[in-house]
Amino acid sequence: MRSTPTILHLDMDAFFAAVEQASKPSLRGKPVIVGGLGPRGVVSTASYEARVHGVHSAMAMAHARRLCPNAAYLYPRFTLYRQVSDIVMTLLHELSPLVEPLSLDEAFVDLAAGDSGRRLAGLGHREVTAAARGTAEALRARIAEATGLTASVGLAGSKLLAKIGSEAAKPDGLVVIEPGTERDFLGPRSVRTLWGVGPATAEHLRRAGITTIAEVAETGEAELVRLLGKAHGASLHAMATGRDDRPVVAERDVKSISVEDTFDTDLTDRARVRFEVARLADRCVRRLREAGRSGRTVVLKVRHYDFTTLTRSETLRAPTDDPGVVKETAARLLESVVTTGGVRLLGVGVAGLADFTQEDLFAQFAEETAAREEAAGDGTAAAPEPGAPPPEPAERRWRPGQDVSHPEYGPGWVQGSGLGRVTVRFEVPTGRPGRVLTLAIEDPALQPAEPLPLTSWTPPPGSPEAGPPEAGRDGDAGAA
DNA sequence: TCTGGGGTCCTAGGACCC
DNA sequence: TCTGGGGTCCTAGGACCC
Asked: According to CATH, where is 3.30.1490.100 located in chain A?
């Protein structure tokens, strides 16, 4: 708990949907819904125009379509979101070396750290508050300039209050919660406002007659611990009374890497289930290797037709990033799971991540790998793997939201496709709403394209974004 | 209306060791 | 022969967050 509001929480407004609107001029001011568009998709983000109709994150896409049939429905473009996120994070790092990202569109910043923090240290309470407010407003303006997007900011003496502040500031606002006013601010709000209180905990508390944060604060810590368990009860009591001393932490280690797939229709063929587990294991290892990590525990996740979900895990003697080892372990775990009735989701993960370099691992596993490859023999690409689904007819697939370009009409994006046709809106982020044309799906002139930047903004010299590709890769890991 | 995909943290029981 | 307690690791599940 600090006596000045120097913890900043930034939250981009309706991030994915806002990026799409900034990218596609024809969608500005219109309802936009980003998420999985398949039969089992859910909403990732709805624009404010769509929220008016009751659409919100985590809602089944089928439900959203009924509530808001005229919205633009788009697949997420994570590559672009990551690029925009990098720009925002760069701007945050200009405020302080202590930046803690929570996701692509959210982060804490400790304004009391670093050079600017030392400047604040010499000031009185009112001056610090005014300076923090000025910093936050300048930040919001810079983000708008660099990305064309709006962000909301909370300033407070703790993480909890800063986060609740940014929520209260939405959209496109700033809320400062003066230290000392925490309990008044929190008291009347629902327990659901508190970090870590979801549907289950809220229901638990409701049955005990507790619905507001003030009521949590009045309940003794011992009682909360009895109700919710040691860690949860204690932290809830602290938060409700405004006590929160969690520091802003810049570098957090990844603890696990996993991939999972929900299938459009349940898998009933056991061979197909085995095949999909092998594919997921490969994808998981690819991600593991991209991160330069290896892990000891392989986890298999299975969700049945009725949504019951189980995990099976096995811990190896040493960390691995070997696709063969992960695949074999996942396959072994699968053999202990009954899948009659149908499988809705499969997942493969690796936990217990180690910092072992690939070289160490290679030495450790060279023998085993060599032995396995020998056993597997050659002839790998000869026949399709057992369980592989029948090959699709080679028709080009265009996904709603996808970037394309055409030599005559220029850059654009796919609105929809079907019946051998694809509908494309030809426009660019910095232009006016463009025209819509319908082309043949097989039209060779239409090609997939990379997303265009939202603005002509370029990172300032010396920032991580502008630096040489390898600069600071290891350098800032252990910075104190 | 029928529920994504990527994570984190906590709890609890059993094995195993000292 | 009966009965300790503590610590750590592993496994499984659940709640929660974005």
From this structure: 256-376
User: A364-388, pLDDT tens digit by residue?
Assistant: 455 445 444 545 544 444 567 788 8
Q: Which residue stretches of chain A have pLDDT < 70?
A: 356-383, 391-394, 462-480
**Closest protein residue to C13 using CA and C1' atoms?**
A310
In words, the CATH class of domain A256-376 is: alpha beta
pLDDT, residue A460, reads 72
- pLDDT the model gives residue A479: 33
Q: Is A106 a catalytic residue?
A: yes
DSSP assignment of A8-69 equals: EEEEETTHHHHHHHHH-GGGTTS-EEEE--STT-BEEEE-HHHHTTT--TT-BHHHHHHH-T
Taking domain A1-178, whether its CATH number is 3.40.50.300 is answered by no
Please pick, among A20, A49, A100, A106, the residue that the annotation labels catalytic. Answer: A106
Residue lying closest to nucleotide C18, CA to C1'? A103
Which bases of chain B are contacted by protein, using any atom under 7 A from a CB?
1-12
Query: What pLDDT, on a 0 to 100 scale, did the predictor assign at position A379?
Result: 45
Of A109, A146, A112, A150, nearest in space to A131 by CA? A112
Sequence-distant contacts of A112-120: CB under 8 A, at least 24 apart = A112/A2, A112/A4, A112/A6, A112/A7, A113/A248, A117/A6, A120/A4, A120/A6
The CATH number that domain A184-240 falls under is: 1.10.150.20
- Residues 165-204 in A having a C-beta less than 7 A from any atom of strand C are 194-202
Is A11 among the annotated ligand-binding positions?
yes
pLDDT value for A475: 36
